[in-house]
Amino acid sequence: MASSNYVKTRWMGNMAFESNNPSGQTFKIDASPDEGGQGDGLRPKALMLSSLAGCSGLDVAFIIRKMKLEIDSFHIDIHARLTDTQPQTYENVQMEFHFFGSNLNEAKLKRAVTLSVDTYCGVMKMFRSFAEVSVSSKFHHQ
């Protein structure tokens, strides 16, 4: 059964796992040393934040290309807070888009971000079902 909604995650011993992706790529998941692992892989909760950034980032990159906007680069910073109770889940997520360039169209870039986080990004919709999420854009004119 191979589909875009199927992954296989295999225990590698101790606290390490290897997980595949529908792209055919694999990555390692491991706990930190203070949790009994080697700290030699990605952390599951942080992967969720990477998924959020990746989902929205892909949308924004697509919209930038479609709108023919001029930017040199952009990145997404996410700061998240976990609950104090077990099991710990994200309760607050702050997502910041940083755009760099000499000819940034701020209004259109803000529109690209809004389209992603309010319309297209399914991971954002999932996050909003369990966490308070805020999104901002910062512009760095070079």
Can you walk through the features of this model?
The protein is α+β, with helices and mostly antiparallel strands and 142 residues long. It folds into 2 domains: 1-42; 44-141, K homology (KH) domain (GMP Synthetase, Chain A, domain 3, 2-Layer Sandwich). The chain is 32% helix and 33% strand. The protein has 3 helices and 6 strands, in the order βββαββααβ. The strands form 2 sheets. It has a 3-stranded antiparallel β-sheet with strand order 1-2-3, with no helix packed on it. The chain has a 3-stranded mixed β-sheet with strand order 4-5-6, with helices on one face. Strand 2 (16-20) and strand 3 form a beta hairpin. The longest helix has 24 residues, at 44-67. Pfam families: OsmC. InterPro entries: KH_dom-like_a/b (IPR015946), OsmC/Ohr_fam (IPR003718), OsmC/Ohrsf (IPR036102). This is OsmC family protein.
Instruction: Give the terminus-to-terminus CA distance.
Output: 49 Å
CATH class of the largest domain: Alpha Beta
Runs with pLDDT <50, length 5+? Answer: none
Count of beta strands: 6
- Please give the radius of gyration in angstroms: 17 Å
Strand numbers in spatial order across the main sheet: 1-2-3
CATH topology of the largest domain: GMP Synthetase, Chain A, domain 3
User: Could you say how many structural domains there are in total?
Assistant: 2
User: Given the structure, what is the number of helices?
Assistant: 3
